Amino acid sequence: MNNPLKSIRIPQGDITGPGVVLAIIILLLTLGGCGKPEAPPALVLDIPVVPVVQKDVPIPITLVGSTLGSVDIPIRARVDGVLESMDFREGREVEEGQLLYTIDPRPFEAKVVEAKGYLAEATTMLAKAKSDLGRIRPLAEMKAVSQQDLDSAVAEYEAAQGALQAAEAQLEQANIELSYTRIHSPIDGRIGISQAKVGEYVGKEPNPVVLNYVSQADPIRVRFSVNERVYLAGARRFAEMRRVSDEELQDRQGLELILADDKVHEHRGHVVNYDAAVNPTTGTFTMEADFPNPDGIVLAGQFARVRGVLETRKDALLVPQRAVSELQGNYRVFVIAQDNTVQMRDVQAGPRIDDMWLIEKGLEPNERVAVEGLLRLQNGMTVNPLTPEEVAAAQEQQAAGEEQAGKDSAAEEAGKESGAKEAEE
Residue 319 and residue 35: Cα distance in Å, rounded? Predict the structure, then answer.
């Protein structure tokens, strides 16, 4: 490029003359036109956006608990002695009335025989006292014996009656204790592993007293607790639960049971029991729910979670969780205005529902929020918003282009190989 200074001639003489000024202006304009070209406009980012969704949303709640049988009964040794037999298979189903254990009955049989002897003696003594009273009473009426003799005979008769009643009670008690040597199942259910084996002395500490448990696992029961905040949030529902019948309660509820492997039990359950008050020590309110368990998959003592609906939020606003960024407990989203400018908006986040986040405050229905590239966004910048449909179309186009490029590359390689073979031939 020619130097523009060579084409400018400054007149001699007065440097303040109009010719000199004109030359300086021309020089400046010429130098300005030879500067660098203007920078290209900034690249506008493509940002995927989704609208804020407004709809009625059920608010779920998940509570931690543990399973227990709908009926769990400990099998106790009610008398002490040596365990003679175990008449069941551990871990199997047993029926009501089925014989489970036998304790050595001989000491108790001896007590029954002894009690029968006392009863016979008491019966004899009563007969004698009654006979003596029958003889003395007519004599006392004739004044043939003293009143003291009559009173003694009456006292002996009444004492004999009391002794007979005591002997009868003793015999009954001996028979009851003898019956306790044969332990039967009180219910239908599954029995566990025995805490004592045949030959052990049972029924008195430190020896085993509770020998086993029989549990009904259909339905299976789950006990869980809610804190005071959750209880107060659902207090009206809890109050309604107290007023309705068990049948109505079962129809209205639909609790889910989540097991330790994160799988949901195939049968839904309902609350059957609840405490009378909040526990002041733990600050929790205890509830129990039953779940059908016909296959016996769920056993007592397992870890479990119960999921249900605490409330239904009307006209709630939802955005995808990936649209919300958090910094030190503060939540914000990037709203794309109608003129495609970015607005960084602080919001009040509520509970998470699946992959969505309920927004309590800070957004309006149908506003557009960015869901990708949040770290590149700045307040006030202009972007090119892409709807989910446009994003999908672009991805399909890119995939098709990559596929075609792959085919072209393969065809080119095949051509090269073919040419190489021809050249060799």
Answer: 50
DSSP string, 23-54: HHHHHHHHHHHTSPPPPPPPPPEEEEEEEPEE
Return the SS3 of 69: strand
Q: Which amino acid is at 266?
A: E
| Helix-strand-coil split of the chain, %, nearest 5 | 35, 35, 30
> SS3 for 201-239, per residue?
EECCCCCCCEEEEEEEEEEEEEEEEEEHHHHHHCHHHHH
Q: Which residues pair with 68 in a beta bridge?
A: 221
CB atoms within 10 A of CB 307: 14
Exposure pattern of 146-181 as b/e (b: 16+ CB <10 Å)?
A: eeeebeebbebbeebeebbeebeebbeebbebbebb
Between vectors from CA 165 to CA 161 and to CA 170, what angle results, nearest 5°? Answer: 145
**With contact defined as beta carbons under 8 Å apart, do 249 and 270 qualify?**
yes
Beta-bridge partners for 338: none
Find out whether 176 and 152 touch, Cβ atoms under 8 Å: no
Distance of alpha carbon 330 from alpha carbon 345, whole angstroms:
11
Among 263, 260, 255, 259, which residue's Cα sits nearest to residue 290? 255
**Structure token digits, residue 381:** 């910048």
Cα–Cα distance list, 407 to 81, 197, 400, 412 (Å):
87, 76, 11, 9
CB-based contacts of 344: which residues, under 8 Å, 6+ apart? 332, 334, 335, 377, 378, 379
pLDDT at 1: 47
Q: Given its phi and psi angles, is residue 311 left (phi above 0), alpha (psi -120 to 50 degrees) or beta?
A: beta
Structure tokens, 7:
């084409």
Condensed to tens digits (0 to 9), the pLDDT of residues 181-225 reads: 999 999 999 999 999 999 999 998 888 899 999 998 889 999 999
Does residue 10 contact residue 23 with C-beta atoms inside 8 Å? Answer: yes
- Residue 54 has phi, psi (to 5 degrees) of -120, 120
pLDDT interval class at 420 (50, 70, 90): low
The larger pLDDT score, comparing residue 409 to residue 283, is at: 283
Q: Give the per-residue pLDDT at 277.
A: 87
Strand partners of residue 346: 332
Element (H, E) at 291: strand 284-291
CA of residue 392 relative to chain centroid, distance:
37
